[in-house]
Amino acid sequence: MRATAGPTEAVGEDDLHAYIDGRLPSERADDVDAYLAAHPEVQARWSQYAEQRQALRTALAAQVGGSISTRLRIAHLLAAQRRRRRWRLARVAAAVGFLMLGAVGGWGARDVFSALSSSSAAALATAVFDDAIAAHRTYSVETRHPVEVGASEEAHLVQWLSKRLGRQLIAPDLTALGFRLMGGRLLPADSGPAAMFMYEDGKGTRVSCYYISADLGGEAEFEYREENGLGAFYWADDGLAYAITARVDRDLLLKMAEVVYQQTSPDRAKPKLPSAPRKPS
Amino acid sequence: MPDRAALLEAQIPGLRCFAYALLRGDQERADDLVQDTLERALARWHLRRNEGNLRGWLYTILYNRFSSDQHRLQRRALHDALTTQTEQREIDGRQDSALAHRDLLRAFSALPEEQRSVLLLIGVEDLSYKEAARVLGVPIGTVMSRLSRGRERLRQEMYGHERK
User: Fold this and answer.
1) Nearest chain B Cα to A48, which residue?
2) Which residue segments constitute the domains of chain B, with CATH numbers given?
């Protein structure tokens, strides 16, 4: 339906759509007006489009109007989010309690946790624990090549790993606990690529933070595993499974897990374990 | 940071309208979709890349949720509530316009989803062509051709077939 209108650039359908959508650059308006004046058939058709465009707006507005239900109010959604967060943090505390109990009673922590979680979630946890611990064992002892991409290229690293995992990742900041980012690498896993960020403190202790996409359809609570002096915390949230692994004591590792959890989860203003209810913001 | 509650609240009417029309008038599912979208937006608030374009970001989340739900429900027949509801509302006295609305919405509901979403984003929600392309994850040329096809199809439904 393209036609030439005088010496200027031909007016095409895209111009005409832009015309009725109010998106035509002003310098183009005269051309389009002239074109429409010269082509009454086209003009008739486009004015019907414009009419329908307006009618659709009116019809939908009449249908959708009315009050917005309470469940869509942001304050309501935020309150629900806070409740979930408190509940999760309470479960972390409970998990730590169980671990202590397990240690005292000689009761394997893994038994406790596999009993607590559902089977598919447990399978995921086992796989992530295995992979993250194996990766940590392999790479944390490297002196020359612990990481593939160094912290000096952090933005590139994060972008690359995010792209490979198909989700926006962040490299957690553990400097508050004395650990600085060394860099990261891409890792293979059964269910797809995984990402690992590695950190080091002044004494050469290394921590790795492992991510993998996990379509769990929900979240998985914190779990702890210890293997030959290596400790790991695992959890899953919002399509990603996480594992923090290091040869440090459980309390410090839990602190790191909390920091990572807070930085990677939405409402990240919140420090510390089971805490007082927050005032609505 | 500006108050995110206020920023989000301002977008709710548009999101509801978009969801409602995508789901062909199933208000309950539309509100579920909007709620899901808002929850996701809150959960990912710090991951927003482009502070300026909150609206495009929200429509993208909503559309992605819608698409993945559709995928899941593909084999399940969609209850077409749009026309039913219009009929219920005719009682309130504005019968002529209600009838015209009903016909238009019925014709609109019959369009393929890819054309409906383009017509909604551009003609109702006032997104630019570029923003719509981003929300739908397709090139801008695809948006333009869906817009052309959708508008023409709707016109033919309402005004009869083109006479040359």
Assistant:
1) B155
2) 1-79 (1.10.1740)
